[in-house]
Amino acid sequence: MTRTVSYGEGRNLLVASTVAVVSEKGLRGLTFRAVAARAGVNNSLVAHHFGTRQALLAAALEWAVEQSIESTGLLALGSEEAFADALLASITDRPELQAFQYEMILEARRDPLFRADVARLYDRYQSFMEESLRQAGMSGDVRSMARRVFATLDGVVLQHIAGVEKAELRGALHDLWQSIQAAV
């Protein structure tokens, strides 16, 4: 049974459903039918909004990055505990966002059609990290520190996906906090 969605709701519903399908089944399991079934809509809605699988994936990747950024709370770095808690929550509360992004990163390695989308992913995270560090009071070579911080966070997320214990990840985040504070 399909449901009716209001104007403007359909696109977001479809990209969220795309993220969920890819997170669960990988890119091989992604079809317009699978996305439509997950969203509870007719599959013609997917074609109407996106036209191609590539356009659907690019929109879903952009959406997933923005959702991940919103959930981190990095613009208000606060205390060491708040920093670790917020970042751990952002990767454990919605693991589908990170799994989807890593699926796309791996796909970009195999398919050059997605390389520009993945490059934008990293550019967006890099500029968000720079903004966060500046708001925390860092000056000097903010870009370099942002690269190091993001690389560490990227590794923490990948380790979480791989099943590394939360206590280990928390330790890495505490170490990262210390590095940030030493630079501020």
Briefly summarize what is shown.
The chain is an all-alpha fold.
Helix and strand pattern: HHHHHHHHH
Shape: elongated
Q: Whole-number average pLDDT?
A: 89
Distance between the termini: 55 Å
Could you tell me the strand content as a percent range? under 5%
CATH topology of the domain at 58-183: Tetracycline Repressor, domain 2
How would you characterize this protein structure?
This is TetR family transcriptional regulator. It comes from Microbacterium panaciterrae. InterPro entries: Homeodomain-like_sf (IPR009057), HTH-type_TetR-like_transc_reg (IPR050109), HTH_TetR (IPR001647), Tet_transcr_reg_TetR-rel_C_sf (IPR036271), TetR_C_31 (IPR041583). It is built from nine helices and no strands. By secondary structure, it is mainly α. It is elongated and about 55 Å long. 29% of the residues are buried. The mean pLDDT is 89.
